[in-house]
Amino acid sequence: MKLAGILTLVAAAALIAAPPASAQVATHNKVAMAKAPGKGKAQGAKKENLRSLAKISRDSARTVALGRVAAGSKVKSSELEREKGTIVYSFDITVPGQTGVEEILVSAIDGSVVSQAHETPRQEKAEARKEKAEKKKP
Q1: Cβ distance 51 to 80 under 8 Å?
Q2: Residue 69 · residue 95 · CB < 8 Å
């Protein structure tokens, strides 16, 4: 008898603690939209979701990235993306006197430099082709 009473209390506590079904659906939809590949609303929601998760601004990240290269360097392109297991601002920076670009990934969470690598013009073109092909996939 005591076991039945305990089980009833546990079941009642679970019902009280469980979020309403509407909250579960809303949470699921947010996660599904963030994970959804492809184009359209899901892709836009993914980009928006990354912006909402970023804790530092693009300008702050840009300052960090430019601080890692020679004076006179210029940001050629930047984007907010999920890479290396975190959300990062990716900057391709042209450096005076060098061919190619410095690719610097700055954490959008804490502003730390996640990685820095030099890309030759050939590597840059290959990466651009790869990204273009990924965008074309349904």
Answers
A1: yes
A2: yes
Q: Rounded to the nearest 5°, which phi and psi values hold at 87?
A: -95, 125
Residue 114 CA neighbour count, 13 Å, CB half: 20
For the record, the structure tokens of 55 come out as: 């804790």
105 DSSP β-pair partners = 90, 115
Residue 62 scores a pLDDT above 80: yes
| Class for the domain spanning 55-136 | alpha beta
Q: Show the tokens assigned to 73.
A: 């360097």
In this prediction the pTM is 0.64
Would you say 111 and 65 are in contact if contact means Cβ atoms under 8 Å apart?
A: no
Q: What are the domain boundaries of the chain?
A: 2-51, 55-136
Give yes or no for residue 32 having a pLDDT over 90.
no
pLDDT tens per residue, range 81-122: 999 889 999 999 999 999 999 999 999 999 999 999 999 999
By the 10 Å C-beta count (0-12 exposed, 13-18 middle, 19+ buried), 25 is classed as exposed
Edge-first strand order for the sheet with 113-119 is 74-83, 86-94, 101-107, 113-119
- Smallest CA-to-CA distance from 65 within 94, 85, 97, 28 is with 94
